[in-house]
Amino acid sequence: MNPVPARAIVIGASAGGVQALLTILPALPADLPLPIMVVLHVPADRSNVLAPLFASKCALIVKEAEDKEPTRPGVVYFAPSDYHLLVEADGALALSSDEPVNYSRPSIDVLFESAADAYGAGLIGLVLTGANADGAAGLKAVADAGGLALVEDPTSAYARPMPEAALRACPAAQVMSLPRIEEFLKGLGQA
Amino acid sequence: MSPVAPHEVEDIEIQLLLEALFQRYHYDFRHYARASIKRRLLQARTHFGLPSLTALQERVLHDPEMLPQLLGFLTVQVSEMFRDPAYFRALREQVLPHLRTYPSLKVWIAGCSAGEEVYSLAILFREEGLFDRTMFYATDINPDALRAAEAGVYSLDRIRKFTENHQKSGGRTSLSDYYTADYGRAVFDKSLRTNVVFSDHSLVSDAVFGEMQLISCRNVMIYFDRPLQDRAVGLFKDSLARNGFLGIGSKESLRFSRHAGAFADFVPEEKIYRRREP
């Protein structure tokens, strides 16, 4: 499949995303050998409840991303509400309060594009359910840099527009149902 | 020759462009966090319709009139008045009672951008009866931002959010007491800036200019790399009076700073620190 071993995973989700991530993330083992960075759109004032919610259900360590924080394998980093999350060339995380992109802050495109620069072919990008088009340009950047592009099957997704937009921008992306995505990500630990 | 990915060529272009800006105009973005500066430069390239960052460099080197526009892309932050109301509430309820004991006060808003925080603090200090004994220093590196800050004019469609934030911050008055509406704009009362000095100052290259009781520098240092953050925090350390206060952005931290030991947590959840005794 992917000739370059994956070094990081980025995930973007919007409407229905909490449920979708609750299907995937708790199933992953604590010794997953790479970090996961997540942008999940939630209202800005519903602030920062995501990390505690997922931490209580996951074997992986789950935390809110901090500025200049180095990433570690086996840790899930959520973008804080009202900040963009980016990855620097050395793999450290960065936050910004630049203007919203695709009406979103955090924006999936901002995370995916910077992570594609940082990890190149070593990145897996995954676009899940959502009712907008954020993440489409980002997923294309992941594929253009040689990374693996994955999209939740729009026909079974809670909201179709975001995975559909991602597929239009990045037709080479692999389409998978949530259970299939879960299996695939679990397999990364058993290479 | 080994193959080079397009983004690696872009990285070289970014480095050269930042070097050119520094040598030609003495604006130093070389130690800004690279991922964000890259987004901003690529936005500028698209805006000017140029094929590459090298072309952008060529233009700005030879055409000084390009500089203000490029600076706009590289520096301007859209903020809100009373952004993160809990921060202003913590200042009001926990920091100002300490400041009240001083006969005169100096407050530095570092990286004031278009002035939203300057007016927020001026209103807060007026509500708490400290305005008349306070001198505010509002600094930025972008002359256009400083002009906007000094003008204190904001689009009326932003006022609803400002008002909501002000109330959540524990505001004792109505925000509408401080501006007049005029053709879709809110013009803030010039009496709010009688005690404000707007000034060009760079956290990258300039020095201490006064002894402050409070410094507020929010969502500015997240754009800096570690060594530059250390410089800025060192500058704040040297600018604060004994027991002076430093407020930073809600997602920023002094934890990783070389100068962390010079500060004690004061309101940790709002990232308000207090200078330790030297």
From TrEMBL, chain A:
Keywords: Chemotaxis, Hydrolase. Pfam families: CheB_methylest. Residues 3-181 form the CheB-type methylesterase domain. The active site is at 14, 41, 134. GO terms for cellular component: cytoplasm. PROSITE patterns: CHEB. Gene3D superfamilies: Methylesterase CheB, C-terminal domain (3.40.50.180). It catalyses: [protein]-L-glutamate 5-O-methyl ester + H2O = L-glutamyl-[protein] + methanol + H(+). GO terms for molecular function: phosphorelay response regulator activity; protein-glutamate methylesterase activity. This is protein-glutamate methylesterase. The keyword Zinc-finger does not apply. Its EC number is 3.1.1.61. One of its GO terms (biological process) is chemotaxis.
Automatic annotation (TrEMBL), chain B:
The lineage of its organism: Bacteria, Pseudomonadati, Pseudomonadota, Alphaproteobacteria, Caulobacterales. It comes from the Bacteria. Its EC number is 2.1.1.80. The keyword Transferase applies. It comes from Brevundimonas bullata. One of its GO terms (molecular function) is protein-glutamate O-methyltransferase activity. This is Chemotaxis protein methyltransferase CheR. PANTHER family: CHEMOTAXIS PROTEIN (PTHR24422:SF8), CHEMOTAXIS PROTEIN METHYLTRANSFERASE (PTHR24422). One of its GO terms (biological process) is methylation. Pfam families: CheR (PF01739), CheR_N (PF03705). Residues 8-254 form the CheR-type methyltransferase domain. Keywords: Methyltransferase, Transferase. InterPro entries: Bact_Chemotaxis_MeTrfase, CheR_C, CheR_MeTrfase, CheR_N, SAM-dependent_MTases_sf.
